[in-house]
Design a protein that fits this description.
Shape: globular
Order of helices and strands: HHHHHHHHH
Oligomer: single chain
Largest sheet: none
Number of helices: 9
Strand content: under 5%
Structural class: mainly alpha
Low-confidence stretches: none
Number of strands: 0
Helix content: 55-70%
């Protein structure tokens, strides 16, 4: 069996923090509701957040530019119309479209119609295949971020999480900065 040094202490510290700050759980549960009825915008958020300052650029600039010019904020629109008008890195508009198509394909495979229902089913059923993670430009961290926004109880392993684990005394050197296990 694989054991991590300081695991019990870290878990105890996290549990104590959650008990002392119950609003953390409330905020985490509310995360899935941010993009209800706007699942295309959710995908723009996920893909657009890679290697960008989220609070300084994604939220105040990138997301409003999509809202302003997109016909609507659905997955269907994003799947059919990559947002090439946005200030994005090369290939990101197509990645956004591919993610939207992957989620829609998941919905069709499971006879789901509502985009919110599709996203939630994809995220929490454990039945998410490779339709998203195999898209070049979507790594493990973005995949988990998408699952979080769709309603899964998961964690996006990124630099902040890795540093937090290290701060709790857990050797997190087996994760890359993109959340990959080495």
């Amino acid at each position: 069996m694989f054991e991590l040094a300081n695991w019990d202490k870290a878990v105890s510290t996290i549990k104590s923090g959650l008990e002392a700050n119950p609003e953390i759980r409330t905020k985490a549960r509310a995360l899935a509701g941010i993009y209800v009825g706007k699942r295309g915008l959710m995908v723009v958020d996920v893909v657009g957040s890679m290697r960008r300052k989220y609070k300084e650029y994604v939220v105040p600039k990138l997301l409003p530019s999509y809202v302003e010019k997109a016909a609507d904020l659905s997955l269907a629109t994003l799947a059919n119309t990559p947002p090439v008008w946005m200030k994005l890195k090369t290939g990101e508009a197509e990645v956004m479209s591919l993610v939207a198509r992957g989620l829609i394909a998941h919905g069709k495979a499971h006879a789901l119609v509502s985009e919110d229902e599709i996203c939630n089913h994809w995220a929490v059923s454990g039945n998410y295949g490779s339709e998203i993670i195999d898209i070049k430009g979507i790594g493990p961290a973005l995949h988990e971020y998408l699952r979080m926004l769709c309603g899964a109880d998961t964690l996006k392993v990124d630099v902040r999480v890795i540093n937090g684990l290290k701060g709790l005394g857990i050797n997190a050197d087996f994760f890359t900065a993109d959340g990959l296990l080495e």
